[in-house]
Design goal:
alpha/beta, 7-stranded mixed sheet, globular, S-adenosyl-L-methionine
Length: about 200
């Protein structure tokens, strides 16, 4: 079990209830409408990086997928286990970019990193892409959302750059399938937040 002092988790424990409320208000299909067509149709192995309270992991599990949820913040992980105790989600307290507690022999058909990348420093973002490529099956899909704007519940943030992510992903054998930039937040009061949504395939 890792310690809960991962820099990117700063602020979430203090804003736990508010963050959970906001998370539960978001419809999975609406939030990930650009990713839906890339999610495997048949039961597959899925990795949710930075799973938070497990809202996405739960939705993916309900599609009959085998879901591993990685979350570094102990408070969020405990909340997720309680909220979705009826789902067969394999929870691991771990963090990008190293994923030291995830079995290195595992391979996944679909990896999701939603609202995570901005909590990684530029060097960590680069290392995280290397790690994601390692854990993807050949022809596997990596769906990534990039956040830019002022801090929210998580106060340790860094800028994200779509072009740089695409360049580095392709250097790691990930083919770009989708680029959507400057997407607005679906939450009220987040007018200063913009998102990019990217999809890659391991070749």
């Amino acid at each position: 079990m890792i310690k809960s002092n991962v820099a990117g988790t700063t602020g979430y424990t203090e804003a736990l209830n508010k963050f959970i409320e906001a998370t539960l208000s978001i419809d999975f299909t609406l939030l990930h409408q650009d990713f839906i067509s890339f999610i495997p149709k048949s039961p597959s192995r899925i990795l949710d990086l930075g799973a938070g309270t497990g809202k996405d992991a739960s939705a993916l599990s309900a599609m009959s997928h085998s879901v591993t949820a990685i979350e570094p913040c102990e408070a969020l992980l405990k909340a997720g286990k309680k909220l979705y105790s009826d789902r067969a989600i394999h929870w691991i307290q771990d963090s990008l970019p190293h994923l030291q507690y995830l079995d290195p022999e595992l391979k996944f058909d679909f990896i999701l990193a939603s609202a995570v990348w901005h909590h990684l420093s530029p060097s960590e973002q680069h290392l995280a892409l290397i790690k994601v490529s390692h854990f993807l099956e050949k022809n596997g899909i990596f769906a990534l959302s990039l956040r830019n704007g002022p801090a929210g519940a998580g106060t340790c943030i860094f800028p994200t750059h779509t072009a740089k992510v695409v360049e580095r992903a392709e250097q790691r054998g990930l083919k770009t399938l989708l680029i959507l930039e400057n997407q607005p937040s679906i939450l009220p009061g987040k007018e200063l937040i913009t998102w990019s949504r990217l999809v890659f395939q391991k070749i």
